[in-house]
Design brief:
By secondary structure, this protein is mainly α. The protein contains 20 helices and 5 strands. A hairpin with a 4-residue loop joins β4 and β5 (241-242). α3 (49-70) runs antiparallel to α10 (182-202) and α3 (49-70) runs parallel beside α12 (211-232). The protein is globular.
Length: 419
């Protein structure tokens, strides 16, 4: 997709992102596609319906990325965030994923679900967004009058030494077969992973008969692929200059500084993720809705909210919802804080890492995905045991018992009887 000017190309990127996100927001609202709900159904009721929907989105995204990348239609190696970076941020993926999983459980949903609920009239989710947005913004942007960020002050010195240099790229194909044979290895590894996922998903007759679960998984997976395709294939002029390259050479190519984006990185190939974009959106609002701050992420944010709102109106499901109690309020606040820190540390959320990142076969994305599910599942187990056993179930006993339930500790260490 070639355009004559930067502004035409940028406008196409932004509005295309909005339309894709609009469709995704409407479908997610309609089908109740919810990653936290998927973990909750699985852990609390043994129901894998929504988990299969999430996995279907992952399988579609993996297969689609293999097709796109092998045909030169996606460049995940140059993505924002850098999923395939040669440095595996092990501590950040594990700790960030756990924090995010705990947070999304306390705050009643992941980043994507938060936006869907805003569109549906949930005022609680506006508070959650505001907290996540402020934390996410200052995790990557310095405080006023300083060169310090929340990340450098709170995390850098102790968490970055946990990182591991894995070489050229951390995608599974490169790690297994080296850079020269990486694409072939990605097809084999990614194909096997996708085949196992799709076999598990569609072996369930109940899932096959659930229109909403199938639709939700397909649309979310295809939306992620559409984001990758659009952001990877917009170029300017006959030379095929990318948007990011144009901004980096702005002073030589543009007639004036007017309209220059504040940062070139968000013009890299990318797809849907929602925690860092909440930070981008918070900064955009705080700085007076400046057009130079508009990014793929902000348009994704706006699109999902708008799509959810449209479906809520069409289906007559729009409802204003407020906190039911002070406990409900502070539980959501704590959850939002953990999601803000965790989502940035893990380089993404249940969509950003669990689908978009996993589609690149980046090792860190699989680690973040697992940590998010574990953090959420353990939190639900702790809540469950404390509710059933009340005073007898201390946090420690509930945690150990939850780990036993997940077979991460031997059965002999169980502190509370299973129910």
């Amino acid at each position: 997709m070639s355009f004559e000017s930067f502004f035409e190309a940028q406008s196409f990127l932004l509005w295309s992102t909005f339309v894709i996100a609009l469709i995704m927001g409407a479908v997610v609202n309609k089908t109740n596609f919810c990653t936290m709900g998927a973990v909750s159904d699985m852990v609390n009721m043994g129901d894998f319906g929504r988990m299969r929907s999430w996995l279907l989105a992952i399988g579609v995204a993996i297969i689609g990325m293999l097709v796109l990348e092998s045909n030169g239609l996606a460049q995940p190696g140059d993505s924002f965030p850098p999923y395939r970076a040669g440095t595996l941020l092990l501590g950040e993926h594990i700790i960030g994923g756990l924090l995010f999983g705990i947070g999304m459980t306390l705050a009643s949903g992941c980043g994507n679900k938060c936006l869907v609920r805003i569109g549906g009239g949930n005022i609680k989710s506006i508070f959650v967004f505001a907290i996540i947005g402020i934390i996410a913004y200052f995790m990557v942007n310095p405080f006023p009058g300083s060169d310090k960020t929340l990340f450098t002050v709170m995390f850098y010195d102790w968490i970055r030494p946990m990182s591991i240099n894995v070489g050229v790229s951390q995608d599974l194909g490169t790690l297994v077969a080296g850079a020269e044979s990486a694409m072939t290895a990605r097809w084999i590894i990614g194909g096997l992973i996708a085949a196992v996922i799709l076999w598990f998903v569609f072996k369930s007759a109940d899932f096959r008969g659930s229109f909403d679960n199938v639709l939700g998984g397909l649309v979310v997976g295809l939306a992620v692929l559409a984001g990758w395709y659009v952001s990877s294939n917009i170029v300017i002029g006959d030379d095929g200059m990318t948007l990011r390259a144009y901004v980096q050479d702005w002073s030589f190519l543009a007639d004036s500084p007017a309209g220059k984006p504040a940062d070139s990185r968000p013009l890299s190939p990318q797809s849907f993720t929602f925690i860092n974009p909440m930070g981008q959106t918070a900064g955009w609002i705080a700085q007076g809705f400046a057009s130079t701050l508009l990014t793929f992420g902000i348009m994704a944010f706006l699109g999902v909210v708008a799509g959810s709102f449209l479906w809520s109106v069409i289906s007559r499901g729009f409802r204003i919802e407020w906190f039911s109690s002070f406990k409900d309020f502070y539980t959501h606040v704590i959850g939002a804080v953990l999601m803000g820190f965790g989502g940035v540390l893990a380089l993404g959320c249940t969509i950003g890492q669990g689908i978009t990142g996993v589609s690149t076969l980046a090792l860190g994305s699989f680690i973040s995905f697992g940590a998010i599910v574990l953090g959420s599942g353990l939190t639900m187990k702790i809540q469950y045991y404390k509710m059933v056993y009340e005073d007898e179930a201390t946090f420690g006993k509930a945690l150990i018992t939850g780990l036993v339930d997940f077979k991460l500790l031997p059965a002999g260490m169980r502190k509370l009887e299973a129910i």
